[in-house]
Amino acid sequence: MVDISVNLSKLKLRNPTMLASGIVGISGKLLLRVANEGAGALVTKSIGPEPRNGYGNPCLIEVFKNTYLNAMGLPNPGAKFFSKELKIAKKGGVPVIASVFGANPSEFAHVASEMEKAGADAVELNVSCPHAEIAIIGQSCELVGETVKEVKKAVKIPTFIKLNPNVTDITEIAEEAEKAGADAITAINTIRAMTIDIDTCKPVLSNRIGGLSGEALRPIAVRCVYEIYEHVRIPIIAVGGILQWSHAIEHILAGATAVQIGTGLVNGFQIFQEISGGIEKYLAEKGYKSIKEIVGIAHQEGGN
Ligand SMILES: Cc1cc2nc3c(=O)[nH]c(=O)nc-3n(C[C@H](O)[C@H](O)[C@H](O)COP(=O)(O)O)c2cc1C
Which of 57, 68, 166, 189 to mutate to test the pocket of ligand 1 (most atoms within 8 A of CB)? Predict the structure, then answer.
């Protein structure tokens, strides 16, 4: 028997797979379905203080196989309404992590507190959406520190922070988040990108610039996880381009304790079970007893 359960601060996950924020995470029933399909934890769509419409279409396009460009504009029903959906998601029996955002540290703290009241097991601070105003928070050590501190004062549940890869040095921001009291780091959000239609001669997305996710993001995400691992002691949750179990292993070897799946859902909800099963088989074949034994071992001199 191989143990693939993991601990993220106070949370215990039956396996390391988590639903990434923004992917089917706005409906309680869909979140419940993801739990029933085998995910170890659920992250909700990013929720703000008030309802928000987001950008017009086109807001999501496939740029090449398994790689997408999106600029949704953080559409969400607001904290008050979403509390009802979160309660439904909780019936899945796995930890539910509320992704939250706000215009400033006190709005983040307010939404986090509302989500805690609704039953969230942890919050994930989205300071990193590359095509919304909040990107600026995730690009500043000072604002990241202030936001984490303010949220930590407002809630007792663990506080995770999702980092913006659109920075010169992601490790500085990760260190600041840890210093301010973050309980885990999620890395990474999408990379700023765009595409132009050569017939209309205009950018394809209504917002012109969006965030790249999926296959093309994976090597960048693995690099970020690897670098962050050398600078912090809190757990890292990897997200970026995980479409099959071997991609998850790559992130774990780089230093991730758990992995989130976003774009990978295009190939079906069974991905959580496939990835957990693949990880279990890999560990058994290599003679490991627990997933914890391989976290970060790509950093060891001379490999394994
Ligand atoms: C359509 C779409 C919507 C997203 N919405 C959010 C969001 O609301 N909050 C957030 O933190 N990340 C959001 N993301 C980013 C994902 O959670 C994830 O960080 C990113 O897509 C990289 O992972 P992937 O390659 O597995 O998709 C969104 C991504 C996509 C494709």
Answer: 189
